Amino acid sequence: MPLDFTAIDFETANSSPASACSVGLVRVREGRVVAQTGWLIRPPAGHDEFNEWNTKIHGLRAHDVADAVTWVQQLGRLCAFAGADVLVAHNAGFDLNVLRRACEATGLEAPPYRSLCSLAVARKTYDLDSYRLPKAAAAAGFGEFPHHDALADARACAQIVIDAARRAAADDVESLAAALGVRLSAPAASAPQRAVA
C-alpha cells in the first residue's frame, strides 16, 4: 500500500476540546502532498467563548468566526476531504479528542477514524532537545511556518510523517508505525448519538 493519509490540525477557542474554531487538512498520496484546505469554524454553543490564552496562541477571536460555518455544517466537508484515511496529527490524542467532543456537543456521531501521532513518530525518528511541532518539522526539512495556523501546522505534520517514512523505508502508515514501534490507533467507539439534520 502507498503512503496515503490526511494530516489534520484543530485550533480551539478555549480549554474545552469541543471548542474547535479552525481546522487545517492536508491530503498525502504516495508520500506527496496533493491537496490542502482549511477553514474557520464557529464553535458549538456553550463552547464558544474565546479564552485570552487561546487567542494569544492562534490569534483568533469571536468576531473572526462570527460568520463561519458551524461544526455541524462543516463536518461533512471535513469527512469528504479525509475520506477513509488515517488521520495524522502532532499530538493526535488532542486533535481526535476535539473531533469526538465537538461531535458530542452537537449530537453527532463521531466518525471512526484511525490515527497516527506525528509527535510519537518524531520522537522515534529524530534526536532533538524538543519535539514541539516547529522543531520536529525543521528536522524533517520543513522550513519556518506560522505555528498555530491550522493549515500550516497540518502541512508541517504531514512533512514529518513523509520524512520519517522515507528514513524508515516504510511504504505506508501501517509499516511506518510498525517500524518505529508506535501505535496506530484503532477507531474509537463512540456512544450512540442522535442525528442532527
Determine the CATH superfamily. Answer: Ribonuclease H-like superfamily/Ribonuclease H
Number of domains: 1
**Radius of gyration, whole Å:** 16 Å
Shape: globular
The CATH topology is Nucleotidyltransferase, domain 5
Mind telling me which CATH architecture this is? Answer: 2-Layer Sandwich
Instruction: Give the termini separation.
Output: 36 Å
Series of H and E elements: EEEHEHEHEHHHHE
User: What kind of oligomer do you see?
Assistant: single chain
Which percent band covers the strand fraction? Answer: 15-25%
Largest sheet: 7 strands, mixed
Strand arrangement, major sheet: 4-3-2-1-5-6-7
Give a topology summary.
Blueprint: E1 5-12, E2 20-29, E3 32-42, H1 52-58, E4 69-70, H2 71-82, E5 87-89, H3 92-105, E6 115-117, H4 118-125, H5 133-139, H6 150-168, H7 173-180, E7 184-185
Parallel strand pairs: 1-5, 3-4, 5-6
Antiparallel strand pairs: 1-2, 2-3, 6-7
Helix pairs in contact: 4-6, 5-6, 6-7
Q: Summary?
A:
The chain is built from 7 helices and 7 strands, in the order E-E-E-H-E-H-E-H-E-H-H-H-H-E. The chain is of the alpha/beta class and 197 residues long. Strand 2 and strand 3 form a beta hairpin.
Describe this structure in words.
By secondary structure, the chain is α/β, with parallel strands linked by helices. It has a single domain (5-182), classed as Nucleotidyltransferase, domain 5, CATH 3.30.420. Helix content is 38%, strand content 20%. It has helices at residues 52-58, 71-82, 92-105, 118-125, 133-139, 150-168, 173-180, and strands at residues 5-12, 20-29, 32-42, 69-70, 87-89, 115-117, 184-185. Strands 4-3-2-1-5-6-7 form a seven-stranded mixed β-sheet. Helix 4 crosses helix 6 (150-168), helix 5 crosses helix 6 (150-168) and helix 6 (150-168) crosses helix 7.
